[in-house]
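hey can u check if this looks right to u? its 407 residues, i copy pasted from the old doc so theres a chance i mangled smth
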Amino acid sequence: MSAAAAAVLMAACAAQPGVAQAPASGPAPLETRAAQGKGQVPAFPGQTRAPELKAGVAYEVSDYVTGIEKPWGLAFMPDGGLLITEKPGRLRHFKDGSLSEPIQGVPAVDARGQGGLLGLAIDPNFSKNGLVYLAFSEPGPDRTNNAAILRGKLILNAGAPRLDNPTVIWRQSPPLASALHYGGRLVFARDGALFYGSGERSILPGRMQAQKLDATLGKVIRINSDGTIPKDNPFVGQAGAKAEIWSIGHRNILSAALHPKTGELWTIEHGARGGDELNIPRKGKDYGWPTITYGVEYMGNPIGEGITQKAGMEQPIYYWDPVIAPAGMAFYSGKAAAAWKDSLFIGGLGSKRLVRLSLKGEKVVGEEHLLVETGERLRDVIEGPDGALYVATDNDKGRVLRVAPKR
């Protein structure tokens, strides 16, 4: 090692004692732009800036659904129909080339800013109970609002499409006067519990509650399908703690999916300028926001004390700086493209691309950027029953793209 290189390495280690450095040699990273968090170093090798690793899958892109406005969430039903939420507050059903009128029974939403009708999930027992779940920003008095989860029975073949007995089963607390950071993804676990990534509402009064157990801002929430609390949640019975909390210290989770082998929840949350995080939120753990984070405030100043590590707080398994502005994500089964099997696909908003991560266990070993040619913000991505990817574009004249591996 040259004297100059050794000096740089020593300076970095002095800035953050005990921090492992990325290897000086090896494949070049896909990301080559300067990081926003100047002087910040990863906590372990491979935590950021993975090398480009192409799967070599040729694909073709076509319009699957058009005529929709700012689609936010996608979910395929057991019969092959596709449910779509539109941010302004509409739920649609698409099947056999036909797009339904807005489904009745959807609640009023506060669609200002990042609010609206957000993620959705289909009950694991849908074929028996017909239940669907919607996340939305619920308007309150004096321009306050909160994220909420609604459950209703979907009726499609008896008159106008509708939700019967729509019922709010969970509300984020406390409500705040903010139009930002609701989170919005709903994911059913294998045991039937329902996860929700709850944002911290961005403004300072919300941000600081990401570390507090008496609020559900900046948390992963875990509830039963009827809104009751699972008895094995980590803070059940703890005085002053919200029993629905699963993990704490999150910023704004907009990507969530179950790992196909382990069944664990994986999430990605937005950083500020730098610091989008891929996490595996585990029971009772603290993921650090706003105490530790990579990146900086939007104005360029440090976030809090500007530290990236602290005892008792979890590290992301991967982070991006600069950010990709993540949206929905999906693990790929390999049904139509074996080379994509077990890849993690992530929609990019500001980055306007579909990000594919190659994984080895819980380690990101490669990154590939797809759909760059579309030049559109990508809000959600799911795998369809045919093995194609279905990607929602975040536009007023929105569409759902079908990304099909060429056979």
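The domain at 47-405 is CATH 2.120.10.30 (Neuraminidase).
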